[in-house]
Amino acid sequence: MKNNIDTNLILNRKIVIEIRFKAQPKFLDLKGTLLDKIYNLNIIKNAEWSIGDSGFKIADNNQEILVRNLFSAELNRFSIVSYDVHSIEKFVVDFLKINDVVKEVLGDLDVLRVGCRILGTYKTKSNKFDTILKKFKESFPNDIFLKDFPTTDLRLQIVYQNGTYHLGPIQKDDGFLQREFRGPDRNNSVGIGLDTDNYLLRTEEIKINSASKIKDVITASLAVEKSLVEKLKDF
Questions:
Q1: pLDDT, tens digit, for every residue of 25-34?
Q2: Residue 225 and residue 235: Cα distance in Å, rounded?
């Protein structure tokens, strides 16, 4: 599983992998053991940890706005978030190591949902918001735009089997940027914004707590990201 797109096209990017499972009351007694084992994997470098009544976090900074890598676990879910994925392959391998530790400590989980969400902003041929917006408008039938209400922005939402994505032009200091990329290293450049969430849900016939199912979900999100960024990079 190699990096899926040209990294030169990426302005900002955040990848989230989350597993939700039937609540495990024994997590409350074992969260210290689980924290210790995951911390000692040293997946998040220079990490600091915090623990509370309902769960724990491992992060590379104790100031929320400066966090670039974060693992968190609760009674019914655990997730990893990274703004700094240099290698998709290593990121996935690291998450699978964490998943193995969770199963070692908590036992087999009744996994209800496996999800992978990718949020990002990406370079386009034009660096002018109005030009990118015009390109988006030209991709749709004119009938959906009202002459008496000129379009000043655009957000597209597409829902498909086991996933969704939101897409649109991004301007400097866009609300999307301010919500999702709050750190001081945020790239405020004009481009396109993408938020894609792909998932698998457990059914009576199919269990989803396997490495192959987790990889399938991640691969789907990466494929959506790659396809859209490649299609729109000439905007």
A1: 999 999 999 9
A2: 16
For CA atoms 96, 55, 117, 134, give the dihedral sign: negative
Single pTM value for the model: 0.93
- Which amino acid makes up residue 197? D
Per-residue pLDDT of 1-18, as tens digits, reads: 566 788 899 999 999 999
CA angle 9, 165, 227 (to 5 degrees): 45
Q: What is the sign of the dihedral through the CA atoms of 41, 72, 64 and 222?
A: positive
Tokens describing residue 230? 């490649």
